[in-house]
Structures are given as C-alpha cells and as structure tokens.
Specification:
single chain; mainly beta; Immunoglobulin-like; 2 domains; five-stranded antiparallel β-sheet; 16 strands
C-alpha cells in the first residue's frame, strides 16, 4: 500500500534538477520516459476488460518525478502519483474486440490516457498531481459499457472482478485448442425412431467476456 509523506519515493535525479522541475498541470496525466523514482510493484497488477489486458507494474507517491527536461513537481498541497503499466497483446479473436478506454480517476475527475497513441506493449510511465490528502486514485479500464478499476494507492483491484477475465494468467481470454469431442445421446423423430450417439467436437474453446 502506498502512503503519503513521509513515506514517499526518493527521487533518483539530482538536487539541481529537482529545484528546476516545473509544476505539473493538476488536470493532466503526463507520460515520462523515466519515472525518476522507484516504483512499488503490486502483488497482482492485472487489469482487464472486454478485449483488453493491462498489467500495472508499479506506482509511487512523490513530490517530483521524471529526469532531465521531463522532470515535473507536484505543487503546493499536492503529491505526484507516478505509475507504470504494460499492455498484453490480445490473442486472435472474432469478432474484433471493442476499443478500450483508460482513465485516471481522482476525486471524481476523469483524466483520459490515450492507449491508441502508445507504441509497443510498454511498460509506459505516467505522472499526475493529486491533493495531498487523497487516498483513492483509480486507473479505470472501460470497454463495451463495463469497467474495471485498480487503486494506485492500495495497489489492488477494486469492485467486481469476473472470474472469466482473470482465469488465464496472461490474457483476458482463455483459449483451449485440444480439439475435444463429447458424445451426445440423440433420437431421430418425430415420430420416435432410432437412438444413436452424436459426436460433437470443438477445435477451439474460448472463455472470456
């Protein structure tokens, strides 16, 4: 669990860089090449929706983050929540999954993070300013009218976590390709006729949203 001051992550950049770091826009979420602080990894950082699978790889509370020209500071009465996540490449699926939306939710305010604008699968680092007294900051993944939330302060998922989405350790869907078959008793008719065994097979079975 992350806690506010004094248990903040120690900046990795120099004191001179810290003093010159500009104050971050309190309504923004900025991407950083280097978080500049040590992030705490969650026990289970998976965050999944319909057609999407993310993994929160770490988070930290600090007053300043980033390095060099990307260094930012929180401003008076605020902390920075610094976090990182990666995206799990989806398995082939038909039909195509819906476009997922990702947002940082703090004090009822949603700050969008453009997943489509990120290159590769990450991990990517981000920072946002939050009130120093805040205890709940969620990363929310939404698709097809359904949302999953991950609390960046407690490093845990919050709300319902459907078993189907988290059954597979690596993806939001579990795909079985063992070409299984099952016998089903059947009778021809009407009128009543001969009984026989019908073999039903499946090349691939997918368990998901």
């Amino acid at each position: 669990m992350l806690t506010a001051s004094p248990a903040m992550a120690a900046p990795l950049h120099t004191a001179a860089a810290v003093r010159s770091a500009p104050v971050i826009d309190p309504t923004a979420v900025v991407q950083l090449s280097d978080p500049g602080v040590q992030l705490t990894a969650p026990v289970d950082g998976r965050l999944r929706g319909d057609g999407s699978a993310l993994v929160v790889t770490g988070a930290a509370l600090t007053n300043r983050a980033g390095v060099g020209g990307q260094a930012v500071s929180a401003g008076a009465g605020r902390h920075l929540i610094v976090f990182a996540f990666r995206q799990v490449a989806p398995q082939p699926s038909q039909p195509s999954p819906p476009q997922a939306d990702l947002a940082l939710v703090a004090a009822g305010q949603r700050r969008s993070i453009d997943l489509a604008g990120l290159s590769g699968n990450g991990p990517w680092n981000f920072a946002a300013a939050i009130p120093a007294s805040m205890t709940d900051v969620d990363l929310e993944l939404s698709a097809a009218g359904y949302s999953q939330d991950f609390n960046l302060m407690t490093l845990t998922r919050v709300g319902p976590s459907p078993t189907a989405l988290y059954r597979d350790p690596d993806n939001f869907e579990e795909v079985d390709t063992d070409n299984s078959t099952v016998g089903v008793a059947a009778t021809s008719g009407p009128p009543a006729g001969n009984s026989y065994q019908l073999e039903v097979g499946a090349a691939t079975t997918t368990i998901g949203w």
